[in-house]
Write the structure tokens for this entry.
Amino acid sequence: MNPRRPLAAHLRLARTEGVGPVGYRKLLLDYGDAEAALAALPARARAAGRASRLRIPPPDEIEREIAGTAAIGGRILVLGDPDYPAMLADLHDAPPVLSVLGDAARLGGRAVAIVGARNASSGGARMAESLAATLAAHGVSIVSGLARGIDAAAHRGALHGGAPHGGNLGAGVTIAAIAGGLDRPYPPEHAELQNAIARHGVVVTETPLGIAPQQGHFPRRNRLIAGLSLGCVVIEAALRSGSLITADMAVNYGRTLFAVPGSPLDPRCRGSNDLLRRGAVLTENEQDVLAELPPAPVARPQAAGPSSPPAGRPAQEMKAGEAPLPRPPSGSGDMRDAILSLLSFTPTPVDDLVRRCQFSASAILTALSELELAGDVETLPGGSVVLPSAPTDTGRPWNEMRNPETE
Amino acid sequence: MNPRRPLAAHLRLARTEGVGPVGYRKLLLDYGDAEAALAALPARARAAGRASRLRIPPPDEIEREIAGTAAIGGRILVLGDPDYPAMLADLHDAPPVLSVLGDAARLGGRAVAIVGARNASSGGARMAESLAATLAAHGVSIVSGLARGIDAAAHRGALHGGAPHGGNLGAGVTIAAIAGGLDRPYPPEHAELQNAIARHGVVVTETPLGIAPQQGHFPRRNRLIAGLSLGCVVIEAALRSGSLITADMAVNYGRTLFAVPGSPLDPRCRGSNDLLRRGAVLTENEQDVLAELPPAPVARPQAAGPSSPPAGRPAQEMKAGEAPLPRPPSGSGDMRDAILSLLSFTPTPVDDLVRRCQFSASAILTALSELELAGDVETLPGGSVVLPSAPTDTGRPWNEMRNPETE
């Protein structure tokens, strides 16, 4: 048997249209392994009421992705892989697949995210660089999103350990979560920075090789940033900026939120100051961050292999001993209608849905994974669901957007 | 009878060495009026164990202060005067005497203090000016200390209503609490600003006419700023700066504390950011302040005249129905020794003293006013007591200090 085969099957399942993070875990539970799940998928999608044919990527497409990733020195981790980071595995919507460049084991270190404005002030960038350097010197990995401004300053600060023109490149570990494929650094002028991060840290994405970053990829990148970190520091975020979305995800994942104060005269500080108002930890230096970090996580037993369900805190839909639910239970049509009636084209948190439905949380999660498979809902990073866009919208290719990163 | 006579007697009592704010109220309670208290003082000081002769200012010195204040258009308010501001009268250590220039009735309006660094950044000064202007436009008087930097910007913002070069001088009310006498504006280059404030607001001090500001006057000025205001906004205060002392006084007086966030890279923002960390209200604009102000105070019945005890919330040492204690009770020597043993050359809050003594609070306050009269302790604004400085220190004249305002 091809040693790649379990990886290929998992990757194929994860890359199948309508299979989101929650559905992926549920399918593995229901059918025992990825091959069985793939075999059952078309009938299950039809049974769930899917109108169009389900697109499962052909095996050669998956083999090309695996070979291409290896060719650039990268590696694909599926949920359950020993190197898959525990912080992410513990999330109820853990990404099924991560593509990484660099030492994947470093994804498991104690990490803190630093995010903020792309049009950062020079003071904000200095703050990010210095905070990253001093935290990295304390053995904390710095996670960010490779964007211009605060992100790049944070990566550089960690890499250079606070000596930007010194020779000690690799002084600290930094992790870049990116929106596109590993071979598509964005923005393009950060290609060299991404290379340096891959050599001295890790670059990670959920997006397949060869795919340029598109607007819909950024929430997934932000989820990786929040999920990989014990805490998230926001420096210079305007109101309604993408950094605040990452901050919300961090809070939803139970991470500690930190914010650096700034002058009210600078619109770039309005969002971060507002986080302070809402209870974020006021952060002036690395001590403010270190004082709030939870103790180092205890080493956990590794999962047996890629096909076993991930170890760690069981997510709500994966309670130990819960019988698999291979088919929608009778009467589930009512539940699906009830759920659909509560959804709209703006994301609804799954928690809200559970509160507003008379059904149990596990029944709702099961119904949602069926609805996603049927193409009737989309699940979003951070635990929200949304109705798929109207046809006029879906017809517009994302890559026509001038600037995909509309944070 | 000279209509000035009750004023003169109160002023003479207040200007007597060893009579602090708490002792002043107690003497009036014990002896019924200021004349009787003055007559009894020398014997009482001797009985309290005072070694040197008590200096009571001669009547002509007091008359000169009253006439001189009137000559520059000023006025002296004693505690209990109908125009004496209720916010100050309610303090347990209310200043016995205020010298004012301008419309004294304006001391009673809804007011907010704005204080901060003398070496303010241009952004900090702009923030102070804009916040003062917008608050003043909402009918809130702006209290500050006439210092360089944030103080002056706050006064100017209120005066000009946010149009610094416009013709609408007097758009809002501002109150300058100053450290020296009314005829000694400090710093000297703010003489014109003080004149403008006197015309369109109020200038207020506890210091007699003709006395240049000395280091020991600044805590009293800071107490006026905190006491006259419903809340205190701190903009750009370094760690251990005088603005933080004003902020502490404001908190001790039950005022709401506000702080404007600033970049951690600017040492001028360390103290104000620290206030945010300790719970001050994060302030970006006037709405943040207005939302936290208590409702407008209810009008209170005016006190009958200057010799009656001040109306309002009775202070701890002035409980209604408590019998006057004209002489130290027998056995009070033990109490005085116990109190002295707990004091040092660094200020001790009276509340701490009460907690650490086995005597009642009212007995301790009585003993403290005797100790002050005896010259054995000094009471400080904000409710602390301290042993008088050692002779080598008291010998150094304050006015030799190069910059008296060592905030």
Q: What stands out?
A: The CA atoms of residues 32 and 231 of chain A lie 35 Å apart. Chain A touches chain B through 18 residues (CB under 8 Å). The longest helix of chain A spans residues 122-137.
